[in-house]
């Protein structure tokens, strides 16, 4: 059985540093504050929001919640973004996506100040991530993958990492972050041929396809570390499952994240860390 | 002996379309114009500038050349960039880099308007390239690699491409462009272990390390297409050589670009195409 790379200990270690940084900020008179901007009431969003708020409260981070009706107009959304941008008491913003179809998501993302863009949705953040320049915020889930690997001492430099998926939320940013850590990075996707051949030769496989249990045992080999970013509800199994067929794969590889309680458990801890960094804390 | 993927026919094919687009623009009263901004007199820059000017003249594209002294101050450079930005008769700008050390290159690049950034040096261009959004300009040399592969009918979709090098001028942008073409892309670099194993399994190898003849025959396998972006002066051999050991590799692979007269011969044709696109031509 593979080592189980649970998210909770990673989040706890991140939180310890964040709490200390919050303390130091408050001594300097700064009250780190997260703005949350939500349109509508999607259960995924509200569940994540609750988790983020709980973590922030626990860490002494304040939260300013802005929720807009499902049918909000673009102008009203942009006005809220502008308010959050100009409010010096809000250090960073999490805006839930996807936005309802009547809204121009690209324009909304671009309207957010890069320095407050805690989840890496703006063009400015994309440019910093791609170029490897300091100062930007990567999407929290992508950074959670790296935090998890580093917490468990998985070597990255010079190792072969295969990222399955090329979304802007996970696949591409994880690839950039792994490259920044000097891993040799391969990005696979729906058009990739003979995927199992590629993933089997990796030291690290990051699964971010968004298809339930689609990476089966033939994709893996002994000794590998597997990070499963997928969170899918399986009708068949009546529970949440990852993109990896955990039952078959966990007996084969060296280490694997569970779903749930793997990467997903680290994401809000990364968000809290980003709030503190945006507020000027040393993290 | 491998098929020789020369750059000249690729450039000629690009030029044919560019010439037609210039013609159509002129009928609409638009005179496509390239601004060239050069600081100092580095021989590499002046040689490239001459080649670019010759190609533009041949295609009916006008060129506005701005050359500044080697010891120019940042303010004077920024003033020139602002002038080029605001000049509606200049459709796009090529700014030579690296800039002399007294200058803040990052600030200078960011000062250029993204819509006029023909060589992909601004954060705005980086964001468009990384996200795969339309409308931006990739660095000309990176796009030349793709143009060359497409000209010679090398299939990209679903194929394995290994890019050796991760610079912002070639390695990373080529990787992004190949990914956009649905190739499966691996980025290798100085910290990559067992590089030959990785390159040998690729369908396409793009060499952009900047080290003379450093990819030797053991890195390649029959059937591969090799694009050599390196241009190095070999003291030993008294001539320009690529990053690939051409003499040893050309007998082994299916197709390979020569150095010189390979990718390098396509770059100014891509630049000219970018001028026309920036001027509103359909390319």
From TrEMBL, chains A, B:
<dbReference type="GO" id="GO:0004477">
    <property type="term" value="F:methenyltetrahydrofolate cyclohydrolase activity"/>
</dbReference>
<dbReference type="GO" id="GO:0005829">
    <property type="term" value="C:cytosol"/>
</dbReference>
<comment type="similarity">
    <text>Belongs to the tetrahydrofolate dehydrogenase/cyclohydrolase family.</text>
</comment>
<keyword id="KW-0378">Hydrolase</keyword>
<keyword id="KW-0554">One-carbon metabolism</keyword>
<feature type="domain" description="Tetrahydrofolate dehydrogenase/cyclohydrolase NAD(P)-binding">
    <location>
        <begin position="139"/>
        <end position="279"/>
    </location>
</feature>
<keyword id="KW-0521">NADP</keyword>
<keyword id="KW-0560">Oxidoreductase</keyword>
<comment type="subunit">
    <text>Homodimer.</text>
</comment>
<dbReference type="InterPro" id="IPR020630">
    <property type="entry name" value="THF_DH/CycHdrlase_cat_dom"/>
</dbReference>
<protein>
    <recommendedName>
        <fullName>Bifunctional protein FolD</fullName>
        <ecNumber>1.5.1.5</ecNumber>
        <ecNumber>3.5.4.9</ecNumber>
    </recommendedName>
</protein>
<dbReference type="GO" id="GO:0000105">
    <property type="term" value="P:L-histidine biosynthetic process"/>
</dbReference>
<feature type="binding site">
    <location>
        <position position="231"/>
    </location>
    <ligand>
        <name>NADP(+)</name>
    </ligand>
</feature>
<keyword id="KW-0486">Methionine biosynthesis</keyword>
<comment type="pathway">
    <text>One-carbon metabolism; tetrahydrofolate interconversion.</text>
</comment>
<dbReference type="InterPro" id="IPR046346">
    <property type="entry name" value="Aminoacid_DH-like_N_sf"/>
</dbReference>
<comment type="function">
    <text>Catalyzes the oxidation of 5,10-methylenetetrahydrofolate to 5,10-methenyltetrahydrofolate and then the hydrolysis of 5,10-methenyltetrahydrofolate to 10-formyltetrahydrofolate.</text>
</comment>
<dbReference type="Pfam" id="PF00763">
    <property type="entry name" value="THF_DHG_CYH"/>
</dbReference>
<dbReference type="InterPro" id="IPR020631">
    <property type="entry name" value="THF_DH/CycHdrlase_NAD-bd_dom"/>
</dbReference>
<feature type="domain" description="Tetrahydrofolate dehydrogenase/cyclohydrolase catalytic">
    <location>
        <begin position="5"/>
        <end position="119"/>
    </location>
</feature>
<dbReference type="InterPro" id="IPR000672">
    <property type="entry name" value="THF_DH/CycHdrlase"/>
</dbReference>
<feature type="binding site">
    <location>
        <begin position="165"/>
        <end position="167"/>
    </location>
    <ligand>
        <name>NADP(+)</name>
    </ligand>
</feature>
<dbReference type="Pfam" id="PF02882">
    <property type="entry name" value="THF_DHG_CYH_C"/>
</dbReference>
<dbReference type="GO" id="GO:0006164">
    <property type="term" value="P:purine nucleotide biosynthetic process"/>
</dbReference>
<keyword id="KW-0028">Amino-acid biosynthesis</keyword>
<dbReference type="GO" id="GO:0004488">
    <property type="term" value="F:methylenetetrahydrofolate dehydrogenase (NADP+) activity"/>
</dbReference>
<dbReference type="InterPro" id="IPR036291">
    <property type="entry name" value="NAD(P)-bd_dom_sf"/>
</dbReference>
<keyword id="KW-0511">Multifunctional enzyme</keyword>
<keyword id="KW-0658">Purine biosynthesis</keyword>
<dbReference type="GO" id="GO:0009086">
    <property type="term" value="P:methionine biosynthetic process"/>
</dbReference>
<dbReference type="GO" id="GO:0035999">
    <property type="term" value="P:tetrahydrofolate interconversion"/>
</dbReference>
<keyword id="KW-0368">Histidine biosynthesis</keyword>
């Amino acid at each position: 059985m593979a080592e189980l790379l649970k998210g909770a200990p990673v989040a706890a270690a991140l939180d310890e540093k964040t709490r200390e940084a919050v303390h130091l900020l408050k001594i300097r008179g700064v009250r780190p504050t997260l703005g949350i901007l939500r349109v509508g009431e999607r259960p995924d969003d509200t569940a994540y929001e609750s988790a983020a708020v709980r973590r922030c409260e626990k860490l002494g981070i304040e939260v300013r919640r802005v929720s807009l009706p499902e049918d909000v107009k673009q102008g009203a959304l942009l006005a809220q973004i502008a308010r959050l941008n100009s409010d010096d008491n809000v250090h960073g913003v999490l805006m839930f996506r996807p936005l309802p179809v009547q809204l121009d998501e690209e324009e909304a993302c671009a309207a957010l100040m890069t320095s407050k863009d805690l989840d890496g949705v703006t063009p400015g953040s994309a440019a910093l991530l791609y170029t490897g320049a300091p100062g930007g915020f990567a999407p929290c889930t992508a950074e959670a993958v790296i935090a998890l690997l580093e917490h468990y001492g998985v070597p990255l430099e010079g190792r072969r990492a295969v990222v399955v998926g090329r979304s802007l939320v996970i696949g591409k940013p994880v690839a950039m972050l792994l490259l920044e850590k000097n891993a040799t990075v391969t990005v696979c996707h729906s058009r990739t041929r003979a995927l199992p051949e590629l993933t089997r030769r990796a030291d690290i496989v990051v699964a971010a396809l968004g298809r339930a249990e689609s990476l089966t045992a033939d994709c893996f080999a002994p000794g590998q570390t597997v990070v499963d970013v997928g969170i899918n509800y399986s009708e068949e199994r009546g529970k949440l499952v990852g993109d990896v067929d955990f039952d078959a794969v966990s007996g084969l590889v060296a280490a694997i994240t569970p779903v749930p309680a793997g990467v997903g458990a680290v994401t809000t801890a990364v968000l809290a860390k980003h709030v503190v960094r945006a507020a000027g804390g040393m993290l």
